[in-house]
From TrEMBL, chain B:
Subcellular locations according to the entry: Nucleus
Gene Ontology cellular-component terms listed: checkpoint clamp complex
Gene Ontology biological-process entries: DNA damage checkpoint signaling; DNA repair
Lineage: Eukaryota, Metazoa, Chordata, Craniata, Vertebrata
Organism the protein comes from: Aptenodytes patagonicus
Protein's recorded name: Cell cycle checkpoint protein RAD1
Keywords carried by this UniProt record: DNA damage, DNA repair, Nucleus
Family from the record: Belongs to the rad1 family.
Amino acid sequence: MRFRAKIVDLACLNHFSRVINTIAKLAKTCTLRLTVSKLYFILSDKVANGGVSMWCELCQGNFFDEFQMEGVAAEHNEIYLELVPDNLSRALKTAQSAKAVKIKLTNKHCPCLRVAVELKEEVASGMLLLWSILLVSIYLPVLKTMKSVVERMKNLSNSIVIEANLSGEMNLKIETDLVSVTTHFKDLGNPPWASEDGCQSSAQGRDLENMAEARIDIKKLQQLLAGQQVNPTKALCNIVSKRIVHFILLHEDVSLQYFIPALA
Amino acid sequence: MPLSAQPPANGEPYVLAASLDNARHLSSLLRAVHFQDHATCFATANGLRVTVEDAKCIQANAFIQAEIFQEFAVQEESVTFRINLSVLLDCLTIFGTSSLPGTSTALRMCYRGYGYPLMLFLEEGGVVTVCKINTQEPDELLDFDFCSTKVVNKIILQSEGLREAFAELDMTSEVLQITMSPDKPYFRLSTFGNAGSAHLDYPKDSDLMEAFHCNQTQTNRYKISLLKPSTKALALSCKVSIRTDAQGFLSLQYMIRNEDGQICFVEYYCCPDEDITEAEL
């Protein structure tokens, strides 16, 4: 994974800062999703009851003069980060009359967004610590089986825990006072990770058996699965532990993506 | 400490352990008695009996004998617990209810005894689901005291003859009236609904009638809302025996053949709605 970007235009910088300030007011933490052309700030804090999630979408071309991104895999050219927008906002405050602001993803000791502000006279830089991200990408099991299981679980509980690891294992779990049910899927396969230097994939050195998990609204999952009339060519999901589950369903000419935020 | 809380003498941790290659053998029978959320399970070396009651007037029992299971081991004389039947059915059918040819869900059921949850392990196509369902103190059950010596009237019918009648019962009628008699009309089902009364007669020499033993003319009424759930058992069955005693208590026994051709029974007992036993129609 690699990311480096640069803003030189003052107006763009101020605009970007204002966006970050707004986001900082709305949520303590957020998930940042980077693609080749866009930045998404996904707010999974409950903005209103019912788990409504919000995201803010920016076209990188409107802000950055330079923008280079290489995601976790060629077929899945995206990067997920979790950050505290307030920290980024404060870093950008120092850049109010800067010549340029450079943002880079590094992983010397742990994943970090490095914000370097080039002032007229001196260069100041700061490091924004990122939470160590637990992100697992896994292929979904046969949708028909997943559909049946989730349908039944929906009768028993309002929320479901979906967890998966890099050993191709996924569990669906519900637990209430009356009953607990866990369905274990094995040998699902994980999409290949690009192993680059710079920012290594978070899998390096991490136990392959570690589960990323998220508790989500079971109705939302059931609706997503019920909507799949035809089997997709490829179906996978990204679980950002305790934050969000991102489903990608690829058909021949259509790709469908769903975000289901984690419940508090 | 009650006996059932002590671990069994031979060191086996489960007082009830059973295996079934096809969970549908159990789930389809339980659906036939699923008209309330709660059921009482009673297991002995002979097999499993699941009882559901309502309004202190109706009782349904599903019997799954030990021979149906690939393994059925009970460590005590009997094991009893109350369980949420809706939850149990959702777990048994976790992989879906459609019976695709060649696919079936394998089941292993384990129970450690009083106070412990019922554990289910279900497997289909390499996917395993583990369920833990809380159990409760068993209820005291009604005893209809229905034995063959007290039976006044008895008929055995082929289920296909009754299926349509029961499926189309006039539910605007409060009662289902059953008349059994050695004389005409022999066996009559009647309803009294908003549109009027409807009568369905089955002559004693009908092809559908497998046995006819009526000694006395009896007319009894039963709350139709209580009997309607028995339609599920009727739908699964090939034969049904209908018996009444001197008080007008009704026993319906359904003979059900499962996918492998094995025989199981479901029975419904029902109290009469009014104390009407007419000597003459």
